Amino acid sequence: MDQCPECGAEVMPRDAECPECGMRLEGATASFEAVAEPSAPAYVADVGVSEVPVLIVRKGVEVGERFYLESPEVTVGRDPESDIFLNDVTVSRTHARLRMQGDSVTITDVGSLNGTYVNDELVVDARLNSGDTVQIGRFQMVFVSGGGPE
């Protein structure tokens, strides 16, 4: 739970304004339902050769954009300081974290309002496999493991 910067009252992350003083709060997160779509083999096949794992946006503002997972830990969120910045109100400021350890990549939801989905299932922690669909807010991405052509 957060606090209102004006009066210090407790506010929920989804609150657009403080329930005590009425101050407009920046960054309220809109609610949504998960979007179910079949996997997108065209995006996976088009990735080419990559030494590191990659997330490819297949639905959202920047369809086709690729996020190469080159660090041991990558943050995902609406905060511009996030490693993967997803600029949409359906994405929490701090939404998820990806961890790379050896050949394994895991995604962890870090308390987002709308949740993190892998293959249309709400997850708190999940190991990603090549071809998995990851949904964060309105952004739907395909995960491709690194190490060469898929």
Could you describe the 3D structure shown?
- It is a single chain.
- By secondary structure, this protein is mainly beta.
- Helix content is 3%, strand content 34%.
- It has a 6-stranded antiparallel beta sheet, with no helix packed on it. The protein has a 5-stranded mixed beta sheet with strand order 6-5-7-8-11, with no helix packed on it.
- A hairpin with a 2-residue loop joins strand 7 and strand 8.
- The longest helix is centred in the first third of the chain and has 5 residues, at 41-45.
- It is elongated and about 55 Å long.
- The model is unreliable at 38-45 (pLDDT under 50).
Brief description of this entry?
The chain contains one helix and 13 strands; from the N terminus they run ββαβββββββββββ. It is mainly beta and 150 residues long.
Helix content: under 10%
The poorly predicted ranges are 38-45
| Helix segment tally | 1
- Topology as a string of helices (H) and strands (E): EEHEEEEEEEEEEE
Q: What percent of residues are in strands? A: 25-35%
Distance between the termini: 42 Å
How confident overall, as mean pLDDT?
Answer: 83
Structural class: mainly beta
Radius of gyration: 17 Å
The largest pleated sheet is described as: 6 strands, antiparallel
The oligomeric state of the chains shown is single chain
Shape: elongated
Biggest sheet: strands side by side, in what order? 4-3-13-12-9-10
Using DSSP, what is the number of strands? 13
